[in-house]
Every structure is written in structure tokens, then in C-alpha cells.
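User: As part of a screening pipeline, I want to sanity-check one entry by hand. Below is the sequence and the SMILES for 2-acetamido-2-deoxy-beta-D-glucopyranose. Please return the complex as C-alpha cells so I can compare it with the automated output.
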Amino acid sequence: MWTTPRRNQVLDSILLLVGIVLVLININGVESRKVRLSESLGYPTIGCNRKYSASLTDFGGVGDGVTSNTEAFKSAIDNLSQYGSDGGSLLFVPPGKWLTGSFNLTSHFTLYLHKDATLLAAQDENEWAVIDPLPSYGRGRDADGGRYISLIFGTNLTDVVITGENGTIDGQGPSWWDKFHKKELKYTRPYLIEIMFSNEVQISNLTLINSPSWNVHPVYSSNVVVQGLTILAPVTSPNTDGINPDSCTNTRIEDCYIVSGDDCVAVKSGWDEYGIRFGMPTKQLLIRRLTCISPFSAVIALGSEMSGGIEDVRAEDIVGINSESAVRIKTAIGRGNYVKDIYVRRMTMKTMKMVFWMAGNYGSHPDNDFDPNAIPVIQNINFRDVVAENVTMAARLEGIPGHPFTGICISNATIGLTKKPKKIQWNCTEIAGVSSDVSPPPCNLLTDQGPENACNFPDDSFPSFKI
Ligand SMILES: *[C@@H]1O[C@H](CO)[C@@H](O)[C@H](O)[C@H]1NC(C)=O
Ligand SMILES: *[C@@H]1O[C@H](CO)[C@@H](O)[C@H](O)[C@H]1NC(C)=O
Ligand SMILES: *[C@@H]1O[C@H](CO)[C@@H](O)[C@H](O)[C@H]1NC(C)=O
Ligand SMILES: *[C@@H]1O[C@H](CO)[C@@H](O)[C@H](O)[C@H]1NC(C)=O
Ligand SMILES: *[C@@H]1O[C@H](CO)[C@@H](O)[C@H](O)[C@H]1NC(C)=O
Ligand SMILES: *[C@@H]1O[C@H](CO)[C@@H](O)[C@H](O)[C@H]1NC(C)=O
Ligand SMILES: *[C@@H]1O[C@H](CO)[C@@H](O)[C@H](O)[C@H]1NC(C)=O
Ligand SMILES: *[C@@H]1O[C@H](CO)[C@@H](O)[C@H](O)[C@H]1NC(C)=O
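Assistant: Here is the complex for your manual check:
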């Protein structure tokens, strides 16, 4: 990994001079610009191999925490977007506090935050464009109609990277949470990062704090990597989900640490009749090396909006601390489609209300037009190699009456209980499946297969992709 060297001003000046000399002796304009920008000013092109780079300050950016940089981001990215078909570009955000409203990304582009750079999201909602609801949701999640655009937004892009050396994006959420609780907002709250209809997306090595709502929302996209994020929000803040892959194909979420007021990872694919009509599943999702604290929500949630289908999800090496549940499947009549082929292994948990939770009666519909015959199918859900301590209840597994959740498999799970555990550890209704080496002993609906009958975890891997 390339890191920005600390350079004193003398060295910078020398490098600038060298750069200018190189510009003067180089008759190839394209080459000279590359040299001048990337070599002399000392910001990275490595890691993303962009041919052109520029700093936000080249476009009038001021990192004093007070001056708005919305225009600086806009003109910088407008300018850099011309290099999309010529080697791509990188926008460097230097140390400082950069107040900004929403801005849009471009293709073959890297947004790179220095470790001491903080983006501060503007707080006045008049600074936020209102965009259409997501077609697979039909309406905003908080309110009918449109939604405030996210702080960093991109749509219909190819090859886009948002990264840093653990630089910070601060959503300044408290005022949004307050207005949300007081029902003072006309539209759905913004997310920190939303990338829509895009291919080859990387979001890495950043700290995201106090998002107004969800943090990272890749939607209708493919070949997405989310890596090395620290996501922090008060555990009581509303809907501050960590990472929400939504109708995405081939996504990898790894090495993230999340403390939040909602699910750490929430896998989605649209809401009732809108999601069914749009018909775009989330599939080929790998989640690994995730550490989560979420006292009122799940480490990994599947749903409740799953109406495009969720399939082929693998999660491994997951640590959950002080969370409500480890893996939670939420669905309801009217959602339609399926959650199937889910594989989880090597979960370590400490202080959990519940380890396994599945609910077929999760309410919340976009409107009354959902199809009562759209029954979601929940099938082939596998958990193995689970160690949990200080747990209140092992599992609550509730299928849909007359439409049981099937193919549930739990093996090699050791669940240690709190001093005051629930009397009934496994409450199972309308489910079918098997178990092996599970303690405390599971419900009879999970037929005991005897010892050492491990649940499946596929050993192939998802298609690799370049970023
Ligand atoms: C993120 O940081 C890690 C650890 O410093 C490093 O190995 C990795 O290459 C970085 N990733 C990117 C995309 O910069
Ligand atoms: C934007 O791009 C043009 C090249 O088309 C360049 O000449 C100009 O200096 C750039 N603007 C800034 C502020 O760097
Ligand atoms: C970003 O794109 C969205 C949707 O395409 C648009 O509504 C919004 O005005 C754009 N924002 C800026 C700052 O250009
Ligand atoms: C983005 O892609 C989607 C899906 O292909 C398409 O429906 C939409 O019109 C595109 N939007 C823009 C602004 O190009
Ligand atoms: C990034 O910053 C956060 C917040 O300061 C810190 O908790 C985390 O350990 C840092 N991550 C890395 C890889 O340095
Ligand atoms: C059971 O799970 C534990 C914890 O992940 C693991 O160390 C152990 O090897 C597993 N046992 C078997 C037989 O797979
Ligand atoms: C165990 O869980 C309870 C809540 O059920 C919590 O109050 C207590 O602090 C936990 N103990 C430890 C040792 O983590
Ligand atoms: C078990 O779950 C059912 C719903 O499926 C619920 O009605 C019942 O109260 C639960 N029993 C206990 C003891 O928690």
C-alpha cells in the first residue's frame, strides 16, 4: 500500500521545481501533466493506477471546517471526468476539515482521503437534492416520495474507488436523527455513500461516523468490494445500518469494524410489489472478517426487504459482541421471491440476546398494494462452527404458517448461556431442517443427525474481478 510520505516544504518545492523542469523538457502534453500532477505534488496514483491526479485545493477547496466545498468537489470531478477514457483520474483530499454538500462521482475515478482529512456533511437539508425513490422500493424508506441524495453519490459508473488512509467521513447525524424523531423531515434521510447501477466499485480504508441513516449502500451494482471500513454511530441512533448490499451481484465485504444503531450488514433486494417487479436479486455475496457491535440489531440481517431474492451468500470469520442477534432473516407475506443458499461458518459471539433468528411475520409494507399471495421461500440456510457465550436465548425460528422455512442446517454450535437465560432456548415453528453437535440441544424440528455431520459450506469461490 502506498502511503503519502510526510514531506517538508523545502522538499516539496524541490519536487515542484523538478516537476516544472520535466514539464518544460517534455513536449508530450499528456505525459507532462501526469508527471506534474502525480510526481511533484506527492499524492498517490498507486493503488488505483490513475493517470491523472489533482488536489481539491486546485479547485478552490478550503479545509477550515466552515467554508463549503460543494462547488470545489463539483468542479474538480467535472474537470477530472474528462480523463475517464484516458487512464482515469484521482482526486486527493488533503489534511483538513472539508465541509460539503452532496457531490457525484464519475467513472475510472478515485476519491482519496488523506488520513487527516475529514469530510463534514452539510447539515441544512436545503443543500441536499431530492432524488426519485429507488425503483425497487417504490417510495422512500422514511417517508413517501423522494429522498435526499447521499453525501457521496454515483450512478451508471464503471471503475470507481473511494478510499483513503483511514480518512474520515462525518455525516454529522445528530441533527438528522433529532428531526427524524420529531417527524420534521419531508423526505427520507441521506446515506453517506450510495453507488447505483455501477460496475467495479471499491470502498475501502475509511472511517465513517454518524451517518444520518445507512452508511454504505451499493445498489443495482456488480463487482463491489467494501474493505477496511470502520463505521461508528451511537448504538441508539436510528437506522444507521453499516453496509447494505442491495440488488447487487458479486460483492465482497471484508475486514470491517462496525458499531451502529442498526444492522451491521443488511442484505436487501427491494420491497414487496416494487421489488418483485424490479426483479433484481442480491447474489454472490461474501462477508468475511467482520466485527460488529449492535445491541439492538443484527450482525448480519437478510431482509426484511428481499423481494428481488437473496441467494448464494457466504459469511465467515464473523465476530459479534453485545448484539441482539447474529444472523437474522426477516421477511413477510407480500415480499415474494426467496432467501436461499446461505452459508455461514466460524462465528464467535459474546453477549447476545439471540444467536439465530428467523421471522416470517416482519411487518412494514410500502403500501397496501402488496400481493397477499407473494409468499417468500426460505430455503437451504446453513450455519456451522459457531461459538457463543453469555447468550439469553439460542434461537427463535418462526416460518410462515403453512409455508415453512426448509433446509435449515446447524452444526458444531456451542452456545453458552447468561446467568438468567430464557427457559425455552429453542422456539421453532413452521421450520424444517437438521442439526449436529449443537448445544444446548435444538428443537425437534431440527432433526439430530448424530455427531460430526457438518453443514455445507461451498469450497469454490466467486468470480474474481479487477478494481
Ligand atoms: C487498505 O489498508 C490495508 C492495510 O493498511 C492495505 O493492506 C490495503 O492495501 C489498503 N487497501 C487499499 C485499497 O488501499
Ligand atoms: C481542468 O482541465 C483542463 C484541461 O482540460 C486544465 O487545463 C485545467 O487547468 C483544469 N482546471 C484546473 C482548476 O485544474
Ligand atoms: C448528482 O446526480 C443526481 C442524479 O443524477 C442529480 O439529481 C444531482 O443534482 C447531482 N448532483 C450534483 C451536485 O450535480
Ligand atoms: C442508468 O442505468 C439504468 C439501468 O441500466 C438505466 O435505466 C438508467 O436510465 C441509467 N441512467 C442514466 C442517468 O444513464
Ligand atoms: C481507523 O480509525 C478508527 C477511528 O479512529 C480507528 O478506530 C481504527 O483503528 C483505524 N483503523 C486503522 C486500520 O488504523
Ligand atoms: C467446531 O467449531 C470450532 C469453532 O469454530 C472449531 O474450532 C472446530 O474445529 C470445529 N469442529 C469441527 C469438528 O469442525
Ligand atoms: C452477560 O450478558 C448480560 C446481559 O444479558 C450483561 O449484562 C453482562 O454484562 C454480560 N456479562 C459479560 C461477562 O459480558
Ligand atoms: C414461541 O414462538 C411463538 C411464535 O412463533 C410465540 O407465539 C410463543 O410465545 C413463543 N414461546 C415462547 C416461550 O417464547
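Points to compare against the pipeline: Residues 9-25 form the longest helix (17 residues). The chain has two domains: 48-216, 263-461.
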